[in-house]
Give the backbone structure.
Amino acid sequence: MTTQINLKFQDDFFELAKSYADSKGYMSIQELVRDALREKIFDDLEIRDEYKKVLQSKEANTFLSEEESEKFHEEMRKKAGM
């Protein structure tokens, strides 16, 4: 499911955003806004130590089981308030 929102920008801010998006290779301002929101939402999350150990281990390059993967994603959703 997706939800559409509408944003209003002052013309000069819009032009700055458009110029930035173009210079950084974003396909659109919408992509830039989504990326900026992801950065704000997920960069401040604290990851539990057991997940850090998994991510830092040599096994991190292998897939988790479907059950482990869903558990991990559910935890991340909870931390993000989703």
Summary: Residues 49-79 form one domain.
